[in-house]
Structure to design on (154 residues):
């Protein structure tokens, strides 16, 4: 008689282990909260055709370390002869000093709501935006695209 009960006890123990294991996995899955979800980077921009100025504002995402960023600027589908380097002081193809985190003398962290700007030189760089020109600025972090700003020069 003891032999007939052994398989039943073995099956009951095996089922109990399976239920316990599935309950443990289920509890862990329900308790799992992912760490801070990656948020998309959203940048808005404005172009002043009269001054040849470009201003970019980090609207969502970040903070970004501008030392890891690169920019590609196109005016009416044509890239600038000299692309901006960020962060920088004064640089060839641009006039004055960049502002905000694009300026090498400031904090390189670009935070939400913060603006950065630069001015295209009128004599040593082109093409220049005219009022109504389409301007596209592509932003890369470590050579990976993270944001594209499309705006019309005013």
């Amino acid at each position: 008689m003891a032999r007939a009960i052994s398989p039943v006890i073995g099956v009951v123990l095996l089922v109990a282990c399976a239920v316990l294991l599935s309950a443990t996995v289920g509890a862990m899955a329900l308790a799992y909260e992912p760490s801070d979800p990656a948020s998309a980077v959203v940048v808005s921009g404005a172009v002043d055709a009269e001054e040849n100025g470009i201003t970019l504002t980090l609207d969502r995402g970040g903070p970004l370390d501008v030392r890891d960023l690169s920019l590609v600027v196109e005016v009416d589908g044509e890239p600038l002869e000299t692309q901006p380097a960020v962060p920088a002081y004064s640089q060839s193809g641009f006039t004055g000093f960049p502002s905000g985190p694009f300026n090498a003398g400031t904090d390189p962290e670009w935070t939400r709501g913060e603006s950065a700007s630069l001015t295209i030189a009128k004599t040593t760089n082109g093409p220049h935006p005219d009022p109504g020109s389409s301007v596209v600025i592509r932003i890369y972090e470590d050579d990976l695209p993270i944001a594209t700003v499309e705006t019309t020069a005013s």
Q: What stands out?
A: The longest strand covers residues 144-152. The longest helix spans residues 2-31.
